[in-house]
Design goal:
By secondary structure, the protein is an alpha/beta fold. The protein has 2 domains: about 210 residues, Rossmann fold, CATH 3.40.50.720; about 160 residues, 3-Layer(aba) Sandwich (Rossmann fold), CATH 3.40.50. It is about 40% helix and about 15% strand. The strands form 2 sheets. It has an 8-stranded mixed sheet, sandwiched between helices. Strands 11-10-9-12-13 form a 5-stranded parallel sheet, sandwiched between helices. The structure holds ligand SAJ. The site of ligand SAJ has 20 residues, from helix 8. InterPro entries: 6-PGluconate_DH-like_C_sf, NAD(P)-bd_dom_sf, UDP-Glc/GDP-Man, UDP-Glc/GDP-Man_DH_C, UDP-Glc/GDP-Man_DH_C_sf, UDP-Glc/GDP-Man_DH_dimer, UDP-Glc/GDP-Man_DH_N, UDP_ManNAc/GlcNAc_DH.
Length: about 400
């Protein structure tokens, strides 16, 4: 194969299929037999715009195959998860496992690229693992210009869930080589399909850039979320405040919500904090503010439930953001689950992006119903996610109900 993509998740699968559509012969590798079988049958195990056709065509055209074994390849791309442990410390064990799995296959001339969002220093760790397992090949090391047998680079993805396929092609791309020669080699892969600019730097800077991008967004959302809590105390409408403040030419406040979700923005800032715990004060506080916003939202809903002792409560949306079927780290889901565990019989859940409720709702008594059924039956209506399917709700539909719109969706 020309390219082996390790990890067929939200980033690995679209990237593998896209590379295949540009003519590369690609082997996608995943530890899950189910994922491998689905992909080999031309199907997808994740919902993402334009992805099904891309995978179907790549499999039909025989430029993409999936396997549970890492094959020998010219380029190895690591796109496995880097979760957070209980203590907010990064867990890079999947990246390390991928490096160990590919090490025996690596031939001189190969290029290894890490794409997984990673704490700073992870690419160096991959170099260490390969060097340990393959004393016969010279692995490039940071700051050296020695001739190495392989190339090693960190090239973060920065695509938005829901627009992954489009953004993979059109976004600018940071290419961080352990040495400049490594960056050049890695760029051969990216320049074949990226229409944005490819920007060259070191692996360490590229690792930091990825974490900083998501921390920037987290800090800005935290400002909006804190404002919403300040506005509750002061007794003003936060949406009016933001709308009017944003008419200042240099002010652009983001939108408050029920907290910050997804597997990136709610996680990556902790990687930055872990690398510099004393210095990263604002970044840590922003994380805490955004996590607290979910607690605050849950408390406000509980107050409404207690004020209306026998009415049903409709919770609109479980996903981590609008128009997506992704429930990972979703504050809406966490809030709904907590309420279902104490008031299950009264909870009506509306989520157009799922047909089955997640396991956490089992035996709580909470039910998944249609929007119309929920609105008809509920005394309390809470907007947790501003899905397009909810946006047609009009004041007349909600007359006589207690309404809490955490997203500022309703007119
Ligand atoms: N959110 C708000 N208010 C806002 C904007 C977002 O509450 O004004 C919430 C969303 O509802 C959601 C969370 O923030 O719960 C994150 O959503 P998002 O759309 O900001 O970001 P993600 O997680 O879908 O994707 C981010 C993107 N990063 C940036 O915009 C800097 C994407 O480009 C990255 O590639 C992705 O993380 C990633 O994979 O790291």
């Amino acid at each position: 194969y020309e390219v082996a993509v390790i990890g067929l998740g939200y980033i690995g699968l679209p990237t593998a299929a896209l590379l295949a559509s540009y003519g590369w012969s690609v082997c996608g590798v995943d530890v899950s037999q189910r994922v491998v079988d689905t992909v080999n049958a031309g199907g997808v195990h994740i919902e993402e715009r334009d992805l099904d056709k891309l995978v179907h065509d790549a499999i039909a055209g025989q430029t993409l195959v999936a396997s549970t074994e890492v094959p020998s390849a010219s380029f190895y791309m690591i796109a496995v998860p880097t979760p957070l442990r209980e203590n907010n410390q990064p867990d890079i064990s999947y990246v390390e496992a991928a490096a160990r799995a590919m090490a025996p296959k690596i031939q001189p001339g190969a290029c290894v690229i890490v794409e997984s969002t990673s704490p700073v220093g992870t690419t160096e760790r991959v170099a260490e693992i390969i060097a340990e397992l393959r004393p016969d090949i010279v692995v490039p090391r940071d700051g050296t210009t020695d001739e190495a047998d392989i190339a090693l680079a960190y090239c973060p993805e920065r695509v938005l869930p829901g627009r992954i396929v489009n953004e993979l092609v059109h976004n600018d791309r940071v290419i961080g080589g352990v040495t400049p020669a490594c960056a050049e080699r890695a760029a051969m892969l990216y320049t074949s399909f990226v229409k944005g600019d490819c920007l060259y730097t070191t692996a360490r800077v590229a690792e930091t850039v990825k974490l900083v991008e998501n921390s920037f967004r987290d800090v800005n959302i935290a400002f909006a979320n804190e404002l919403s809590m300040i506005a509750d105390v002061i007794g003003v409408d936060v949406w009016d405040v933001i709308r009017l403040a944003n008419r200042h030419p240099r002010v652009n406040i983001l939108r408050p919500g029920p907290g910050v979700g997804g597997h990136c923005i709610a996680v990556d800032p902790w990687f930055l904090v872990a690398g510099a715990p004393q210095a990263a004060r604002l970044v840590r506080t922003a994380r805490e503010v955004n996590d607290h916003k979910a607690v605050h939202t849950e408390e406000r809903i509980r107050a409404l439930i207690e004020a209306s002792p026998d009415g049903k409560v409709a919770l609109l949306g479980l996903a981590f953001k609008p128009d997506i079927d992704d429930f990972r780290e979703s504050p809406a889901l966490e809030i709904a689950a907590a309420l279902a565990h104490t008031h299950g019989e009264r909870v009506l859940l509306v989520e157009p992006f799922t047909e089955d409720l997640p396991e956490t709702f089992a035996e709580t008594g909470a039910r998944l119903v249609t929007l119309d059924a929920a609105i008809r039956a509920a005394k309390i209506v809470v907007v947790l996610v501003d899905h397009t399917a909810f946006r047609h709700l009009a004041p007349a539909d909600l007359a006589g109900k207690l309404v809490f719109d955490t997203r500022g969706m309703l007119k």
